[in-house]
Amino acid sequence: MTVRVSRTFAFDVPGDQIWSFIADPEKRAGAISVVDSYDIHDESRATWHVQLPIPLVNSTVTVETEDVSRDPPTRVKFEGRSKALRVTGEHTITDTDDGCTLANEFVVDGKLPGVERFFKRNLDSELDNLEAALREDISGSE
Predict the structure, then answer these.
(1) Overall CATH class of domain 2-141
(2) DSSP H helical segments within the chain, as ranges?
(3) 83 φ, ψ to 5°?
């Protein structure tokens, strides 16, 4: 089973302000609650150490992430791979008359029992976390 969640956020700031957050692998990783820690390798690659509270995963799962597509300053798509899951995230910024929108889509394919069930229950709240981190970043840069 594949879990897919899409959501669009509206902001009253220019798209380049959102781009500075969404194109940064450190900020993206920091917004995800199950990412216990991370190692940034360069502007497009990072290792996430993910703690999944499911029975068959008793330790941190290492997820190697990489931006597979970048179209500055409007779109970034990344993929993460591990023994437990494959995740794809895509963020697209569109300018509007009074700011911009950010369309987000995440797809998780679990490779171990319980992974998809966990993300089916929790992926939507991870988007809440992403939105909260973005709004905090915006308010801190004003």
Answers:
(1) alpha beta
(2) 15-22, 25-30, 115-141
(3) -70, -25
Q: What is the pTM of this model?
A: 0.91
**Cα distance between residue 13 and residue 91, in whole Å:** 16
Tell me what pLDDT residue 1 has. 73
What does each C-alpha distance from 29 to 17, 96, 107 come to in angstroms? 18, 27, 16
Tell me, rounded to whole angstroms, the distance of Cα 78 from its chain centroid: 8
For the chain, the domains span: 2-141
Quick one: which of 107, 66, 110 has its CA closest to 85? 110
DSSP letter at 69? E
**Distance separating alpha carbons of residues 129 and 142, to the nearest angstrom:** 20
Distance CA 107, CA 88 (A): 5
What are the pLDDT tens digits along the chain (142 aa)? Answer: 799 999 999 999 999 999 999 999 999 999 999 999 999 999 999 999 999 888 877 678 999 999 999 999 999 999 999 999 999 999 999 999 999 999 999 999 998 888 888 998 999 999 999 999 999 999 986 6
Place of tokens 């940064």: 24
Rounded Cα distance, 10 and 90, in Å: 16
